[in-house]
Amino acid sequence: MKKLLFILFLFPLLSLGADITSLMFYTYKVRDANFNEVVEELKQELNGKDLKLLRTLTISEAIKARGVKDFPNYTVLLACDKKEKEDLLLRSPFMSNLIPCSVAIYENKDGSVSITIVNEKPYLLAFSKEISKEDKKFISRTYSELRRVISSIAKPERRKFSKGYLKKMMRELKNASFETSYSIKGMNFDDVKTLLKSSLDGVNMNILAVEDVRKESPKYSFMLACNLTYGEKILREFPHFGTLAPCRIYLYEKPDGSVGIGYINIQTLIELYRKHLHKDAVEVFEKADRDIKSAIKEVKGE
């Protein structure tokens, strides 16, 4: 049934031929600028506007260290580290894909520098029944602040759809399934966390960092998992995906004592962006999904 709903949701996008990336992402461009200077300026602006920087991920350096010398400069900033995130994520675990914010900064072939963030609105609509009005306002306000900061140093790219089309598609996006989730019973949070980290490493979904959002019960953490071989192929072809990578795999204590595990639905991403991806990139996405599922099944003892 979920598959059918998603196909019905996707059909208008394909039939109208709009650029889905314009709907799902905001991209800004800086011309005639040094990449490192853009990164540093943006970091300063974020920290100065209550959008505190949590972590800097120099993706291109990690990929180049593996011998891929021609990979373009690429950095992801985890920002918007606000005190409200703890309660928000306990109420709506999936929102760790939005808070902290991922800001992808990358160099283009013409020497310009692009800055991309996700459009939070489709995700808020998809989870409109699960998220409170207050939390929705908090996330919307945070992303509005983020867009203002980025606009102060970069020019936004023109979005390729009409307002009428936008309203129509935002309604359709309510049917999208953006989350893959599991429940682990009979194990405590810390044991699940340790086993999950080990299992992900075992399938080469390397853990770049673990963020413990809440250390007291109910606990909440998310892991930044990445296979750099996969990342290289995907980001070369579709650099926007740095806003969703490394993959955030989150785990949290549920009221019934079980442990929830979730991450963004990779199959939904494949269907959304298929026309922008070559066959080998689709295969990489599918491999990553299988790897994560395999690691979680190992934790469950399956």
From TrEMBL:
Q: Which SUPFAM superfamilies match?
A: TT1751-like
Tell me which residues make up the DUF302 domain. Answer: 59-119, 211-265
Classification via CDD domains? DUF302
Signal peptide range equals none
Protein name as annotated: Uncharacterized conserved protein, DUF302 family
